[in-house]
Amino acid sequence: MLLLSIPKLSEMITQLGLVTLLSAFSLLLIIGLLTISKLIGSSCIIYFSAGQRLQRRLLFILTKQQQLKQLFYFKKEQIHYVTEHTRKRLLVADNRQQIKTLSTAISNDLKSLKHQLPRNHFLQLQKENIQCREQQDIEALIQLQQKIATIHYT
Amino acid sequence: MTTIKNWALALLKSFHALKDENLLWEQNNQEQRTRLKHTQILAAKTLQAQLKKKSVILEHELTLLRTSNDAKVAMLKTKCKQDIKDYKEYLNSLETLKNSIQNSFDHLPEAVAFTIHHHAKQLLNQMWETDNFEHKIHHELQLIKFMTTIHEDTHRHLEEGTSSESIPEKTLRLIQNKPTF
Fold this sequence. Notes:
Chain A has 4 helices and no strands.
């Protein structure tokens, strides 16, 4: 370069190269940004277009229908469960009342038989009565009452 | 220098030729392009109309479903309330029945009255707990038959004035011959 007596040519070429590179990168960046903006814009237009909005609305209604069906099923199950629970509570209350009445009757029968029975046998029967009442076992209580009735009649 | 100029001219010529060709193609296909664009817009409009129509139908169905579900739930609630009331009444009537047996048959051991009551309650629960309609009817008939028999026994006892030692035979026979289902 010195021979050609252009001393600043190399510097100028370097500067030119740098400017060209920078311009190329800037151009690339601008193109990229423009492409992204264009894509975002077109996506927004598609998203808010009438067709897409209607499709979303349809999907919403279908989901709502499904939800209503599920809700109805669970409501039904809940009502059945509550009804069954109430019925069982009534049954338990009635059983308890019957057991109490029967146990009192057995206790009275036993008292009337107290002098006819050996002490141990009497105590055993009384114990059985209390045990059955505590266990809420109506069938065992009925059997006990039958046993006592047999003793009473013999 | 002339060579470079020639090359540049040739390049420009070919570029112009390409542009001409493109213009010609566009001119030739202009009508078809317009037609296609028109068809596309028309198809989009038709699809929108269809979607709108479907959405209106579905919305109407949704309203119907909501109303029908509400009505069904209300009906089920009423039915279940009635069921509970019926069950309570059944229990009360069984209690009354037990008392009437005890009052009618003075010397009847307490155990027998309770056995009758217990059996009736078992029948009632069997009827209530089964899901099968036929079985339900069968158990209901059994319960009705059982209660009728008790009534007959007590009625006969009171009418005929039979000995105070007598027992509700028919009812006890029914308990002994307890059918299995």
